[in-house]
Amino acid sequence: MRERFNELIRASESICILGHISPDGDCAGSTLGVFNYISCLCEKEGLKKNVKVYLEELSEKFSYLKGYELISHDPEEKINYDLAIVCDCGDFARMGKFMRYAKEAKGIFCADHHITNTGFGDSFVIKPEASSTCEVVYDLFLKEYVDKNAAECIYTGIVHDTGVFRYSCTSAHTMEIAGECMSLGIDFGSIIDDSFFAMTYSQKQILGRALMESRISEDGKIVYSAIGSGIMKLYGVSKKDMDGIIDELRTTKGALCAVFMYQMITGQYKISLRSNTDELDVSKVAACFGGGGHVRAAGCSLSGNPEDIVKKLTEKIRLQIG
Asked: Which of 290, 322, 129, 293 is nearest to 218 (CA)?
């Protein structure tokens, strides 16, 4: 598939790169990683192409990634692309307001690691066993066109989807790729500190509020917390500031599952699920409510009050963990 991926890039005069709504580290890393890879390929082969990344606004903590300032957040441009490269996205709906760029493109190449992605587009690579979509796209790259800029993106995505190499999705191959990125001279320490661990004061406050108001159920097997739109407004935070809360909940001793939800502008709650055991596949739980993800990390959106939402989720979780 690597050969097909590079053939499509060379044959396409215009390319759009798309990810999922509420882009996270892996989405940012994979889309911008592909962007920088194509830029390097074009420079070395003397090719000229129109390449554009379309994503919802990224957190400023990713501003060190090359191409961050070139991302288009506006879906109003009237242009049809020869090729749409879709990263870290399980279906068309997850592309949100940029979906039409994929549907109207002459061809689609999808790269993903979500187990709920059944494959869409003309060509696709879906590897649920991979740590991240960054790992998937890196294996599509020709090494001579992977420069420091692309390596920073790939390393960032891997760091975020493995929890700095702590999660069970981390493999020997994951570490091999990380090592190859490091050999290109990236500042790996700063990437980890500044994009994964660093938080603004407001983020610290909302994290504290979420932890302080968290609850447990099912004899401590489930820990959950919810943040309403009023609380978000009070602390001056947005959805971009919610990163990391679910991972702090996940480390609660005795918890097999962590649930975090925050209220979106639509009134719905964006729900993140994390599993601490092989007995619980949270992607199956999320799929029951129109979401998806991985065995250990998944998400969906639901309407209602938080207590009712937790009850609905618990019913599905109970089917697996008893």
From this structure: 322
Domain boundary among 162, 180, 197: 197
Nearest to 53 by CA among 78, 76, 80, 28: 28
- State how far the Cα of 258 lies from the Cα of 214, in Å rounded to an integer: 10
Q: Domain tally for the chain? A: 2
Instruction: Supply the DSSP string of 48-77, one letter for each residue.
Output: --EEEEE-SPPPGGGTTSTTGGG-B--TT-
The one-letter amino acid code at 194 reads D
Domain membership of residue 295 as a residue range: 201-321
pLDDT in tens, 162-193: 999 999 899 999 999 999 999 999 999 999 99
How far is Cα 216 from Cα 255, in angstroms, rounded to an integer?
A: 8
- The token pair at 178 is 């990380």
CATH number at residue 46: 3.90.1640.10
Report the interhelical angle of 25-45 vs 148-162 (nearest 10°). 160
What are the tens digits of pLDDT across the range 222-251? Answer: 999 999 999 999 999 998 899 889 999 999
| Bridge partner list, 301 | 270
Token pair, residue 292, equals 């998806």
How does strand 123-126 pair with strand 14-18?
Answer: unpaired
Write out the H or E segment, with its range, that includes residue 282: helix 282-287
Are residues 89 and 110 in contact, defined by beta-carbon separation less than 8 angstroms? yes
What mean pLDDT is reported for the chain?
95
- pLDDT tens-digit readout, 103-114: 999 999 999 999
- Provide the token pair at 207: 């994290």
